[in-house]
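Students often ask why we bother encoding 3D structure as a string. The short answer is that it lets us treat folding as translation between two languages. Here is a chain of 456 residues written in the first language.
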Amino acid sequence: MAAAVAGVPDDGPRETTDDELLALEERALRSRSALAAACGSDGLQRHVTIFVQAIDSQHQDGSWGSDDYPNMKPCFTAQTIDMIWHLEKRHRLDETTTRPTLMSIERIQRAITWLKEEQRPDGSWGEDAWDTCQVLKALALSGLGGDDPNVQRGLSYLRANIDQNWPDRASYWFGPGFYGSSMEAFNRFEDRRYATIALEAVWKSYDENEGYFRPPRLDDLRYAPAEWHTACVISGLRSFGSVAPHRDKALRAITWLARQQTEDGCWSPGHQDITTYCTMQAILALVSLSEMTFNENARRGTEWFMRKFERDRAALSSKLMAAAVIARTHPDSIALTLPLSFVMELGDVIAQYSLQASSLQTESQIANAELRSLEAQIAAMRANTASLEERLRQAEERTGQLEASYTEAHDEGHQLREQLSSYALKLTANQIAILGILITVISTLLGLAFSLLVGH
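And here it is in the second language, the structure alphabet:
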């Protein structure tokens, strides 16, 4: 098996060295130069840009689609596999070509693994039986056969739906479109019996006067428009190959569908999402026909998708559907001008840059947080310094007051000593003798009084 194309690393972002960054920048410059030289026209560059962004939107688990709508991810994953398969088959110049095959692409391998893990116990995927049909077709394109356990459970689920008259008929999308998609799924795995059952049932919804396939209730907003159902049935009828059942009716349905295209290129104008899904299915139904008559309709529809994508770049679903229709309407010009391996490589470069940008953004946020923390600490230190300076000033004032009080007390003591000295010098010898006699008399009297008190 050929080496897998490197995808987004499973272990998340890591620190990139300066040499790796320089190599990555040089690789990106070469890729941009090669892209501009290879594409030539602005229109083709727009197509390739959408391809690169669509492929690069793959999640780490291998799926495509928005995490906000997990039930829709199996359908978008299957749709993207179909997109890459249709682009890659243009590279198969002959049976001995050395170009990478679908199963050698690591991204597709991860997508198939994810789809297998997401299959429900009853064998279904996504929101309804129609989604299950899309996944089964993608598994067939990836090379899985009817003996694969996941395929067997998926086909059993579809057979049970037909045998039980479609238990999920309350779905908004239920109608002949379910029969058309199940025909295609059964034919992919050569289940002619159930493909024929679905074929016979679908004609019950055919309008003999107008030539289209009706939803369960016409003009009932609870069901998808007739354009969507008719497009799905056309794709299902085409899956019978050269044996075109009811060819006249099929051609009338194709002609009716082409006439429903509006002047701006879409089908079933109205609710934005419904219009998008109807337009994509109409393009897929018309562009794969052997007749060249309807190629212009399909390309006009693709241009409508391009304008929608440019208005609504943030919508991942718009990006994936735009890439899907481009793969059908402009496969030769892109495939012959730009190798698929280059598209995948360019997507990997963008992915690496995205990871590096995310890592740098995280580092920047951490640095900003640390800077804010340091600024807060500096502000706190400045506040503490101001408080300490105020306390020091108060202490200095108190010390000055104490020094003044000490000086005053010292001066008073000195004066008192001088006064005592002056008094002592002024006493005569007779005065000193009289003081001694008085002290003796007073002591004697005190002793006598004490003796009397004790005696009593």
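Translate back mentally: Residues 348-427 form one domain. Keep this in mind for the problem set.
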